[in-house]
Amino acid sequence: MKDYQKTRLRKIFRGNLLFNILLKDFVSFRVGGPAEIIAFPQDQEDLIRLILFLREEKISFLVLGEGTNLVVRDKGVKGVVIKLSSGFLGIEIAKGKEEEFYVSSKAGERLWHLIETAFQYCLTGLEFASGIPGSVGGAVVMNAGAYGGEMKDIVHSLTILVSDGSVRQVEKEALRFSYRRLELPADAIVLTVEVALRPGNKEKIAHDIKTNLAKRKKNQPLELPSAGSVFKNPPGFYAGQLIEESGLKGYQVGEAQISERHANFIVNCGKATAHDVLDLIALVQEKVWQEKGIKLEPEIRVVGEG
Ligand SMILES: Cc1cc2nc3c(=O)[nH]c(=O)nc-3n(C[C@H](O)[C@H](O)[C@H](O)COP(=O)(O)OP(=O)(O)OC[C@H]3O[C@@H](n4cnc5c(N)ncnc54)[C@H](O)[C@@H]3O)c2cc1C
Question: Taking the CB of residue 206, how many other CB atoms lie within 10 A of it?
């Protein structure tokens, strides 16, 4: 960004701005170069001003949730990284149709906080997501899912900010979810997510949450930095099993390693670079293609400059 643009940005924007900060400190994989600018909008109005400024100046941006599904390349991200934080928190519950309750969460909330809130109010429907790290906004954009559930099963509506600065409410019928994906207009930012939940039995909800957390602890390498499952499961197969059967468990490039515990996780053994991770991803794709004739497609998103 040019100096005059930085000066203008400082004038119109009320939230914090950080310059040249390593993004590895903002993502669960702990890899990635610097962001030219990280902007923390104070509230929705501040975000709208920022978006309009970036549009006018033709500056690109990336919205960052909790960074748990990202590989940030080593040269970092040009333009502005927008982090929805303290100005984008809050959960409200309202009685919906028939037996349903609509729980509305701002996008910056942690998904775990939404699950805890639903539990406190004895509402069922979100237990599948227990242990999925990240923000509520990230979960809906990724259509995060586990143990037979996905966000698309419970999302009732979204509020999104589109690139002309207008805010729209989108009902579930108009949302196009697919496997780990939600189609949104280009550069749209999710502001609020409303999920429809039902009254449940508190003991049963607690039991299901506990069981799902225990399964994760047993099967996933949670003690090392990662971005969760690297590849989507191809129809009829488990990516982890294909990788394991291709003899790659434990295989390492630099300090990026195919987890010994779960072959669909790549873990950062300490000082991995995005380059190590991306080389390992390419190597896995090649080997599984040779051994199994199946193309693995990444679930994690890669952003930034090479
Ligand atoms: C240990 C571990 C286990 C995991 N297990 C699972 C699992 O079981 N199931 C699963 O589905 N995922 C899993 N994940 C992946 C990840 O946690 C989810 O995809 C999560 O929902 C991402 O949320 P986030 O806030 O971290 O998003 P980020 O990684 O920050 O962003 C993901 C994408 O969403 C976009 N985005 C984020 N917020 C917004 C917003 N408000 N508006 C517009 N775009 C936005 C970003 O630009 C990016 O393209 C796991 C990850 C880890 C590290």
Answer: 12
